[in-house]
Amino acid sequence: MSNQKKRNFQIEAFKHRVVVDPKYADKTWKILEHAIHEIYNHNASGLSFEELYRNAYNMVLHKFGEKLYSGLVSTMTSHLKEISKSIEAAQGDSFLEELNRKWNDHNKALQMIRDILMYMDRTYIPSTHKTPVHELGLNLWRDNIIHSSKIQTRLLNTLLELVHRERTGEVIDRGLMRNIIKMLMDLGSLVYQEDFEKPFLEVSAEFYKVESQEFIECCDCGEYLKKAEKRLNEEIERVTHYLDAKSEVKITNVVEKEMIANHMLSLVHMENSGLVNMLLDDKYEDLGRMYNLFRRVPNGLLTIREVMTSHLRETGKQLVTDPERLKDPVEFVQRLLDEKDKYDSIISLAFSNDKTFQNALNSSFEYFINLNARSPEFISLFVDDKLRKGLKGVSEEDVEVILDKVMMLFRYLQEKDVFEKYYKQHLAKRLLSGKTVSDDAERSLIVKLKTECGYQFTSKLEGMFTDMKTSQDTMQGFYASHPELGDGPTLVVQVLTTGSWPTQPNVTCNLPAEMSALCEKFRSYYLGTHTGRRLSWQTNMGTADVKATFGKGQKHELNVSTFQMCVLMLFNNADRLSYKEIEQATEIPASDLKRCLQSMACVKGKNVLRKEPMSKDIGEEDAFFVNDKFTSKFYKVKIGTVVAQKESEPEKQETRQREEDRKPQIEAAIVRIMKSRRVLDHNNIIAEVTKQLQSRFLANPRRLRNVLSLLLNEISWRGIPLTENCTVILLEGIA
Amino acid sequence: MKIAKDRVRFNVGGRIFETTSTTLANAGRNSFFGAFFDDNWALKQPINDLNPNSEFYIDRNPDCFGILLDLLRTGDLHIPPHVPERLLHREASFYGLLDHVRSAKWGPFDANRLRYSRSVTGRAPGDGTAIRAGPDGGCCVAHGSMVRVYDWMMEEHPPINLDYQRVNDIAWVDSENVILSACERLGRGDGGMGLFSKSTGELRYKFQVCHENRVKSYTAGALSTSSDYRIFSSCKGRSNEYGIGVWDQITGKQIDFFYESPGWSLGDADKLQWLNGRNCLLVATLFPRKDNCYISLVDFREKRMVFWSDIGASMTVDEKRVRDAIAMEDCNAICVVNEYEELGFMDLRMSGGSVRWSSRSRLMKGKMPDEPCYPKLALHEGQLFSSMDDSISVFCGPDWVLTSRLRQSYGGSICDFSIGGDRLFALHSEENVFDIWETPPPPIL
């Protein structure tokens, strides 16, 4: 009993732990392993999906996930090693086909294996952060097939060889190629990049380096560009057929670099076929191709633009400085317009209306047009020519086109006020001589100038038109109030407002008695109808129609200037007049008189007077007679006035005059700006003024400073020097 | 009579089921049935037409198969009382139909149709810190130094902790990963911020704060994440590491640190909220951590505060003390709440502006419960939620009218609540119980 009592109770660990049959896992795995073998051997028809799925499920459920997973890895690896051998054994061209076939097999097997192991894929793998079955299958394929030492380089070389063969014109199996490339992409973008794309780009670069060198040695620029374009398109097409879309940028970059960027300068400057030749010959197609190709590379368009600009400046400079051209202003301007048209169409047809090219064109024109100080004058002369005669029979739209083109040139001018000066003179001449062909065209141009430069610019021009209109009315009124003037000479007066018209030196002369009487009548009529006005006669600008009868009774109507009329009238009462007598009678200044006589006595065909002695020049001792032998085919004869000798004042003086003319405008601009800004430093005020005056002329900074400092002395402004170069200007109370 | 060609006959655990392969196709390719009928396998099965009595055997529970078959037929889940839910989940997991069960159980979130679903009781009583809904319908509850993790089936996973330090905040990075912020333990390098696996509870990464190229230990406070994979946390170190730390979710590296300007208590912040449209972070430090309520928007690109407001300097005396704040980007406003659950609004575009309190008068004044819980705010799809005492109010814009009130009497005041995975979780303070609110599946007609 005591023994019994002494018995120790021992608490034993619970012995009946539920233990799954240790062989269970092995047995189950064997079934699954066998199934995987059968799947790889295309022998899956005897397999039951439900059984396999259940077995895999049970393994995971009973914590044999690890065994299942590692079993899968080793089974699949061993299969892939076998596959690798069979691919290696494939001969020649069948290599890729075998690879492709095995790849398809593997994908199918992988899908089936994943189906069986779906439960593991869904539960065991995420919680243990292992690679999912599908990705695992791809990784194993990558490591055992693609990266196996015997396949990796062979695959790469085969692919590159195929691309090379296609580049040299052979037809290859693009479908197979696409499948293989797709496989590389499926294995991850890194595999595609490392195992194909990178070497592909390197080989391509080498290929195009060699080829471009060949081309550049044997082709002209146009041909080369055609070939480069073709290659580029081929590569883009290749990408769409069997490469990753992301490769397009990379391979085109290679072609662009090797074929274009590296040869850019030699292409542009290629002898007899480079850019300059293309421009000269208007080769729109080639230029367009060059533009499109060069646009793809850094600095490509810049290169084209620079060459074009320097060529344009060079030819433009030659054009405007060619002394031959200066002889004919109309031809000069026409040349400029033609040049502009030429480049406009190049830019629109070949350079896809690129703004930067348009800017380059504009700046080039601005550059060389202003190289010739007479450009403003010439442009005005061109307009003058067109408006005098050139526009006859031209439709309204064409007139607009021509005027628009002229405006374009006008825009390039820096010294717009010089143009204005000439334009005013030329317009005055056209109006006074009644030579303008189209009032509409004249007005249209003025409207254009107005929109371009503002009201101020054209107010005087418009005043001239108003004067013309008022004069007509005045003359009608004059003759209506003097009905007795029906017979005798007819007087036509144009009353010009002072200031609106270009100033002319007022040269007076003695009019023939009957004319001066008529003038007096007009004066009293005019001053009677308008109060507070003053009339002065600009006899040097008038014209007259004189009827003359010569020795043998030939009658002509002579169209002459007022001076010439005065001289001719003297011969009504005398046969012979000496120079001195004429000078005394008419009081025409010597230089004008000499020109006047010269044009009537020395010009062949117009020599209504005879001179003794016969010579080209008029001497003070000469004597004049009516030329009885004067003949002309026409009844009306226009006798011009010999153009004055080249203006004697030197160019410099004109410049100085111009600077004087500009002074009030500069002053006005400064005051305008200071009124609104009050405080401004020195440099800014110069900048502002220059900007404001731009529409009229390019202000010379030194001149600006000069005017500014003069103004500072005159008005109550204060300049506070801050630093040496910077002065703040304060405007203190200016009305 | 013609037999439908796609008819299939199953013997599941001894019971015969007849259905069609079309019905089973609703399971999707990524399921048992999807693979079963795939060309790779289907050809190897006996073909019905030739042998109408042939059947496929599946060694599973027939009751559950019936429920799941009806789920595939109708899209509705009906679980008879005698079938344990866990068993059904187990079976659904076998067939790969768990997602179907999950989406049939409750509908898309609609704050005004919420129904109380169930309560889950915690282990230790009292004082939960925070509850956070996960993206898939699960949640985690911070409690002292532990965080308990539940999946959407309310199965509890191994709890997580960071060196057993007191947990300040938790945030879901995705349906598998949770970040936890905890207090530091002086001199030990413990605490800070860690990334945990939801399913296994293992620590996968510990985030570090570097100051002048030296790793510092720190206390991590409020957390926020942004859609461009950044993590924000208010940080408090012992030297200069006061402010907001920013980490990259993918690399885990610290990518930025906004050192706080004096007096702004960014490192103590109670609430961080990333504003996607404005590309800045709302930082709110509230009573009782500070006497005043500091709210600011921090722009990390320009390293400056683009909005700030310090409410309360003049208001500490009256009872309008801000207890929580939330930015509502769509309305350019910040909503705040005081301890009487009165809502106030501030214009997000105007710094230093004042709070416009809504005139809604509540009967609550002067009727404080014994153990008060401060109100919390949440925003979900344009609806504003505010918890007070043992209920949660739902307000709809633009005038923020009260449209629903959620109340479950058991467990005392609600100390925190969270919306996510089409569920609302409310954590009670007294009994350590949390309630789950779901939107029922849409009506049949």
From TrEMBL, chain A:
Gene Ontology terms describing biological process: ubiquitin-dependent protein catabolic process
InterPro entries reported in the protein's UniProt record: Cullin (IPR045093), Cullin-like_AB (IPR059120), Cullin_homology (IPR016158), Cullin_homology_sf (IPR036317), Cullin_N (IPR001373), Cullin_neddylation_domain (IPR019559), Cullin_repeat-like_dom_sf (IPR016159), WH-like_DNA-bd_sf (IPR036388)
GO molecular function terms listed in the Swiss-Prot or TrEMBL record: ubiquitin protein ligase binding
Keywords per UniProt: Isopeptide bond, Ubl conjugation
Domain Cullin family profile: start-end pairs: 374-601
Superkingdom per UniProt: Eukaryota
Gene3D superfamilies xref list: Cullin Repeats (1.20.1310.10), Cullin, Chain C, Domain 2 (3.30.230.130), Winged helix-like DNA-binding domain superfamily/Winged helix DNA-binding domain (1.10.10.10)
SMART domains cross-referenced by the UniProt entry: CULLIN (SM00182), Cullin_Nedd8 (SM00884)
Family indicated by similarity: Belongs to the cullin family.
Name this protein carries in UniProt: Cullin family profile domain-containing protein
From TrEMBL, chain B:
Pfam families hit by this protein: Beta_prop_At2g24240, BTB_2
Family matches, as PANTHER family: OSJNBA0029H02.24 PROTEIN (PTHR14499:SF116), POTASSIUM CHANNEL TETRAMERIZATION DOMAIN-CONTAINING (PTHR14499)
InterPro entries: Beta_prop_At2g24240 (IPR057441), BTB/POZ_dom (IPR000210), SKP1/BTB/POZ_sf (IPR011333), T1-type_BTB (IPR003131), WD40/YVTN_repeat-like_dom_sf (IPR015943)
Pathway(s) this gene product operates in, as recorded in its UniProt entry: Protein modification; protein ubiquitination
Protein name as catalogued: BTB domain-containing protein
Species of the source: Hevea brasiliensis (Para rubber tree)
Domain of life, source organism: Eukaryota
Residue ranges of every copy of the BTB domain listed in the record: 6-81
